[in-house]
Amino acid sequence: MRIYISADMEGITGLVDRDDVQPGGLDYERGRRMMAEDVNAAVRGALAAGATGVLVNDAHGPMRNLLSEYLHPAVRLVRGRPKQMGMLEGLTPGHDAMVCVGYHSRAGEPGVLSHSFMGHEIEDMWLDGRPVGEIGLAQATAAALGVPVVALTGDDAACEEAVAWDGSIATAAVKYARGRFAAELRPEAEARRAIEEAVTAALAAPREPVPAPPGPSTLTVRWQSASVPAMLLGIPGVTATDSRTVRAEGELPALYRLFGVWMRVASSLTDQSPYC
After folding, report:
1. In contact, 147 and 96? CB cutoff 8 Å
2. What is the Cα–Cα distance from 161 to 56, expressed in whole angstroms?
3. Coiled coil located at which positions (predicted)?
C-alpha cells in the first residue's frame, strides 16, 4: 500500500502565528520541528495500517520546511520549488490513499491562519460553483487521479471544512481556533496520538473506489486587486467575470496545474506579506 502525504504548516500542532510558519519568523525553527513530528505521527499511522511506501511532499510556502534528518526513516521526501503540481507534487494514480497533514481552512473562514494559497491576495475561490480552498481543491484533484483523501489534520475549522467537502475523510483536530491568530492547543503527545490513530483507522477501513470525474471542471478565482486578472487574461482559456475575477475550464489535475501558473504570475506582481 503506497501512501502520499501532503504536508502544510498552518494546521500543525502548536502553531498559531506567521512567526511560527514563515522563514525568518521568531519561532519558525521550532515550527519546522513541530511540522516534522506531526508528519511522523501520520507516517507511523500509515505504517501501522500496512503501508509499504510513504511519499511526503513539503507543501508549505517555500516548500523547504521539512528537514529529512527529523523525519521517520521510511519517508521519501519531495522538497523545494517550483514544482509543477505544487502542493500535490508527486501524487500519482499509483498511490492507494492520500493524507493531508497541517492543513487550514479557506480564505474568509474563522480558522487559524485561514487563507487560500496566497495569503490575502486571493479573496475567494469556487470549483464548479462551490466555495473551495486548499482542502477541497486537493481532494478534487486527488479524486481525479483515482486517489482518495482518507485523513486530514489541522485545527477544528479545517477538519470541519474537510468533512463538509467529503464526508468520508477522517480528521484529527490538533487545536481549536479562538481567532485567526489564536487557538486552544491540545497537548503535543495527545495531538500526535490523535493523528496516528486517525490515519491508521482511515487506512484500515474499507473504501469504495473513487468515482471517475463527471467531466471538465470550472475554477473561478477572485483576487484582491485587478492587476493580477488583467495579466492572467493573456493565458489562453482564461476569461474574466469582472475586473477582479477570472475563470477557466478544464480537466483535473491539469486545471490544478494551470492554477499553479496563475499563482506564479500573481507572485511576480505582488510583494505583500500574507496573513495581513
Report:
1. yes
2. 22
3. none
Neighbouring residues of 52: CB distance < 8 A, sequence distance ≥ 6: 1, 2
Say how far apart CA 110 and CA 114 lie, in whole Å. 7
- Rounded CA gap, 61 and 64, in Å? 8
The C-alpha cell at 76 is: 521519501
Q: Which is it for the CA torsion 26, 56, 128, 262, positive or negative?
A: positive
Contact 143, 98 (CB under 8 A): no
Same domain, 43 and 152: yes
For residue 84 the three cell numbers come to 509543477
Same domain, 232 and 141: no
Domain count, the chain: 2
**For residues 121 and 249, what is the distance between their CA atoms, to the nearest angstrom?**
22
Could you give phi then psi for residue 219, rounded to 5 degrees? -110, 125
Specify the 3-state DSSP secondary structure of 181. Answer: coil
State the Cα–Cα distance between residues 32 and 38, nearest whole angstrom. Answer: 10
Residue 40 and residue 152 in one domain: yes
String of DSSP letters for 37-93 = HHHHHHHHHHHHTT-SEEEEEE-STTS----GGGS-TTEEEE--S--TTGGGTT--T
Is the pTM higher than 0.90? The answer reads: yes
Select from 62, 61, 65 the least CA-distant residue to 77.
65
Active centre residues (catalytic): 115
* Residue at a domain's end among 179, 204, 229: 204
